[in-house]
Design brief:
single chain; 376 residues; alpha/beta; nine-stranded parallel beta sheet; two-stranded antiparallel sheet; 11 helices; 42% helix
Length: 376
Amino acid sequence: MRYNPAAPVCGLRCPPLQSVSGMVSFGLFCLMGYRDRGSAVSEVLGNAVQMVQWAEEAGFEAAWFAEHHFSNYCVCPSPLVMVNHCAGLTTRIKLGPAVIVVPLYHPVRLLAEIGMTQALLGEYRFLLGLGSGYQPYEFERFGADLGDSKARLDEFLALMDRAYAGETFSFDGDFTALPETSISTRPLDGVPPIWIAGDSESTHRLAARRGFVPIITGRWFGADYLAEQRERIDASYAAEGFGGQSHELGILRFVCVTESDEETLDYLVNARQQMRFAAALRNRQEAMDGGMLIEKPFSGEPTLEEMAASLPVGVPATVAARLTADIRASGASHMMLNIQAAGSTMAQAERTIRAFASEIRPAIERGLAEDPGAVG
């Protein structure tokens, strides 16, 4: 039977990621890149594991792991490996890829590995982030076509519906065809919660149709930009017949507690490097020195001072006030905090995570309690 992408078989809508307080939830985002040539991969990955443990102690609801390939932008080629590793070193925090670049995988193997991960973590700890990818540099080296990446993601979702719906299934798609087959690790209670990354109308409409949670980045802008983004997303949901702002939304944000203006600018140099690398890789403008990306400005790049005026970076009160404004403007239900960026230090990361528990989150929740309608 040929698949119909408009008619999912499982039909499960994803439950929200709930905070203990019932307000917005928070997650740690781990990109796992580095700035200095010769940095040990074991140290970069070990630092991410340490931050996840700190985040669990600090009451974060989730930790997320990126996937990228072939450069120092990110040294994590398999976020599911990180999820499974960290699951054995933590007890409560939810864990998920943010995101698996679906077109770079054999879809049937990926289905089996997702099912295995959910079986190992349990249905209440595993979060599944998926995306179509955006970096030509990666796709070329996998022999994949970026031009059909969104179509491959759509078909994978239809394949997942059919594969997880029963003990056996068959499938006839544009990219994958299977005779009667069984995924031995399929989740017996349906698909895990799914989060979808992308800043396009097609991605947001897909999220609306399927009940997925869209993930967007605030980049270097402030709350006004996030309000505009929310309006765009709401328009996509309305086009699919879902009005209002009650749907879930994840926002990715640079965050760091610093102790001086000089330290703030130093952290933002690292955040800017991360943004420069992402812009170059997105726009096919990357320049390499061996395995190291060469940092160069991008069109429309903000100054460090402009970034300092918008991002949640600074003393705890500043971080709390700006995150509160971001949440109010966007109606976000989940904030993914990108705390360790490029060459920023683990001392800064630990300080930020500790301050989040003792000062920042309580201040955010007090602020949101005054305007509960702002929370998605």
